[in-house]
Design goal:
The structure holds 2 protein chains of 2 kinds.
Chain A lengths: L2 H40 L18 H8 L3 H32 L4 H13 L2 H11 L6 H8 L11 H29 L4 H8 L4 H29 L3 H6 L11 H11 L3 H28 L2
Chain B lengths: L1 H17 L3 E7 L2 H17 L2 E7 L1 H13 L7 E5 H9 L7 H7 L8 H7 L1 E2 L2 E2 L2 E5 L2 E6 H5 L1 H11 L9 H11 L12 E4 L6 H13 L16 H17 L9 H9 L3 E7 L3 H4 L11 E4 L9 E5 L7 H11 L2 H10 L6 H4 L2 H6 L3 H9 L10 H16 L5 H18 L6
Parallel strand pairs in B: 1-2, 1-3, 8-9
Antiparallel strand pairs in B: 3-11, 4-5, 6-11, 7-9, 7-10
Classes of the chains: A mainly alpha, B alpha/beta.
Chain lengths: 296, 426
């Protein structure tokens, strides 16, 4: 084969590659880039559902209005707390479960299936289900803890409790995602370093600290980032379970924006808030990504 | 491969041509929709029009409707409109006026209860909807407890008045307090005078309206000046807060009507201020342990008026077929059949129709309830108002905000929205 032949071959390969990826890229453009730009564009217009046209350019007024929203700052704060609480707890539980499962040799499939079950349930159903179980007067949860002499908990009506109830339900629903991802990472780790460490008489804990953790870092990074982004978008369980209440204690930003768009009919203002949220999420993920890479 | 594709294409074409006219309707999963579905074969046989009813839950309806209404050609031929949305939908010009069709076909719209015609029928003199069913709010209570001689004697001794269906708010509140009890003596209340549906948003907004009317309060005066910081409104909220604290089960701050319904249906409460359409559920032994023991009466001082109307969107692909469906569903015969099944009537003669009353003896009371109702403010931003005021009411109900402060905030929210809508000036 001559060099020129190889050249054309490579070019043909590349062209074939473009051809294969083109539909996917086009679809991505259509469903991600376009809506993103559309939202950005819309955020500078007085675009409402009553007058869905870009005919009234108002500059940064939507952003100003969002800034002046009395309850928006509180909503961001609740979201931050929610994201931190759910991601951290899910990581701790998820990693423990993954380590435990990694050490198990028998009935692995059974455990996998049990773990996956909540993930397969639609979030709306999860919300409805838990609302029923947590009914303060008639629910099973209070009945069961009553058997142990614990007094009734006002799961969704108490200002202090409702936030943690929502966090718990989110953990119940999403923790297996974390566990499965981390478990896959554990399964792919090489055996040799552990064997060497064993020979040197390292304890299980030291093995974990000095081998497992460093080797798992890329997987942990991906798992945390994914969950973080998902957690910020949490909407369904709030919408179904609390409507942001009691008071404002579970009013996540996503539901706040939803209300501006579909109850307030103000797509322009909702877009401005979404852009703001996007900027925050992007900054946060970039920072985290850099930070984790720097640890390597 | 190509042959298969061709076959599919040809088949699809044939299917399209062979199929009769089809109309699509978006409806809510409620009993009144079910009654329509039960009677549907009648219409399909008579008209040759196929009907596809897409029944979904309330929370999804608005966000599903709006995109279809905005587009020049939507996917729904016919829709049902909650009174919340009337201001918004008509202001946006999404609904088609029905006056010409009514005049052309000689449909008698004089049969509708005027209160409902004003709510989900005419807007500024133009007929956009025909009232489909009403969900006016009322007090559902335990008749068996009122009839119990021991309770009667105890109540008389305590308050010096007879124990009977309450006619004034004071009388009702005394009963609420009287029936709230700790029956098993464990120090925790286990029977409740009333059940609050206090979840933030629409649930609390709807129920609290009845408390407002009970105190003679209103949302606004005849010139749309908001009145939510009035003494009446503050008193109404104080009663509501008192109910959450003392007379309603734990978790009331997070209940919507379904959770609250279950408390009463499980025999754990004396009364529930709620939608009249839930009454049929209490009377059904499948969903309630108190069937045969409940009664329904007007909320003292007036309850909240509520209803749905049939409307043809301007984006409807087949307006004529949609109209023939409305004519069928609202014909005196079908309207009566729906009522016999348990539907909530909108046409005046049905409330007192002898056959209907024989099957459902409480229907004349439903007529009385409807006649005494008050309207919620219907304007372009009603949906947003429900959310904004619902937040303040819930903040007050959970004790996070003092009542007068919350009502002042609610007043300000209403004022801002009315200004935005041009109802009042800044």
């Amino acid at each position: 084969m001559t060099g020129a032949d190889a050249h054309t071959l490579a070019r043909r390969d590349r062209r074939f590659g473009y051809l294969l990826t083109a539909p996917g890229l086009a679809a991505l453009m259509l469903v991600i880039t376009f809506p993103l730009l559309f939202a950005l564009f819309t955020s500078f217009y007085d675009y409402t559902l009553l007058n869905p046209r870009h005919d009234d350019f108002i500059g940064g007024e939507n952003y100003l209005e969002a800034w002046e929203e009395e309850y928006l700052a509180g909503s961001f704060w609740v979201t931050l707390k929610f994201v931190l609480a759910s991601v951290v707890i899910e990581f701790v539980i998820g990693f423990s479960v993954a380590l435990a499962l990694h050490a198990v040799n028998r009935f692995k499939t059974v455990y996998y299936l049990i773990l996956l079950a909540p993930l397969l349930i639609n979030p709306v159903v999860v919300g409805l289900l838990w609302r029923m179980l947590l009914h303060a007067e008639l629910g099973i949860a209070n009945y069961v803890i009553g058997l142990f002499g614990i007094s009734r908990v006002n799961w969704l009506g108490d200002i202090g409790v409702a936030f943690w109830t929502v966090v718990l339900v989110d953990i119940w629903h999403q923790v297996s995602f974390m566990a499965i991802l981390l478990l896959a990472g554990l399964a792919a780790l090489p055996r040799e370093p552990y064997e060497a460490a064993r020979m040197d008489g390292a304890s299980a804990f030291r093995c974990f600290l000095h081998i497992t953790l460093p080797l798992m870092r890329p997987v942990i990074m991906v798992a945390l980032l994914l969950r973080l982004i998902f957690a910020i978008k949490t909407f369904d369980i709030i919408f179904i379970m609390t409507k942001g209440g009691p008071g404002t204690s579970t009013d996540l930003v996503s539901y706040f924006i939803y209300r501006a768009a579909f109850f307030g009919l103000d797509i322009g203002r909702a877009s401005a808030m979404s852009v703001g949220l996007l900027v925050i999420v992007l900054a946060l993920t970039t920072y985290l990504f850099r930070y984790m890479r720097s640890l390597r | 491969m190509r042959r298969i594709l061709m076959t599919i294409a040809v088949l699809a074409l044939c299917a399209g041509a062979a199929r009769a006219e089809t109309i699509r309707i978006l409806m809510e999963t409620v009993p009144d929709t079910r009654y329509i579905q039960e009677l549907l074969p009648q219409f399909e046989e008579q008209s040759g029009i196929d009907v596809e009813i897409e029944a979904i839950s309330y929370i999804d309806m608005h966000s599903k409707l709006v995109p279809q209404l905005i587009s020049p050609q939507g996917s729904y031929d016919l829709i049902v409109v909650d009174f919340y949305w009337v201001g918004e939908f008509t202001k946006a010009g999404w609904l088609m006026p029905l006056d010409d069709l009514v005049a052309r076909d000689g449909v008698d719209v004089g049969v509708y209860v005027p209160k409902l015609m004003d709510l989900v029928g005419r807007v500024n003199g133009v007929l956009y909807m025909l009232p489909f069913y009403n969900y006016s709010m009322a007090v559902i209570y335990r008749q068996d407890l009122l009839d119990d001689p021991a309770e009667q004697a105890a109540f008389k001794e305590m308050h010096g008045m007879d124990l009977k269906v309450p006619e004034t708010w004071d009388e009702y509140w005394k009963q609420v307090e009287f029936f709230t009890r700790d029956n098993d003596g464990d120090g925790e209340r286990d029977f409740f005078g009333t059940v609050i549906q206090g979840q933030r948003g629409d649930c609390i907004s709807m129920q609290w309206a009845n408390y407002l009317y009970s105190q003679g309060g209103r949302y606004h005066d005849e010139n749309w000046n908001p009145l939510l910081d009035s003494d009446e409104a503050i008193r109404a909220m104080q009663y509501y807060r008192e109910a959450v604290e003392n007379y309603s089960p734990a978790g009331s701050e997070s209940y919507c009507f379904d959770e609250a319904f279950n408390v009463m249906a499980q025999g754990k409460a004396y009364s529930f201020v709620t939608f009249n359409i839930l009454y049929a559920g209490f009377e059904d032994p499948e969903s309630s342990t108190v069937a045969g023991k409940v009664g329904i009466a007007p909320n003292p001082g007036g309850g909240l008026n509520g209803g749905w109307g049939w409307a043809i969107p301007n984006s409807s692909p087949n307006k004529e077929a949609a109209w023939s469906f409305i004519k069928w569903a609202e014909s005196p015969e079908v309207a009566k059949e729906r009522a016999m099944l348990g539907g909530a009537p909108t046409q005046a003669p049905i409330f007192t129709d002898p056959d209907v009353v024989a099957a459902r003896p409480y229907y004349p009371i439903l007529g009385e309830i409807l006649a005494g109702t008050q309207d919620f403010p219907v304007f372009t931003y009603t949906t947003e108002f429900v959310e904004e005021v619902g937040r303040e009411l819930n903040l007050a109900a959970t004790g996070q905000k003092p009542v007068p402060e919350a009502m002042a905030a609610a007043q300000e929210e209403l004022r801002k929205l009315l200004v935005k809508d041009g109802k009042i000036s800044e």
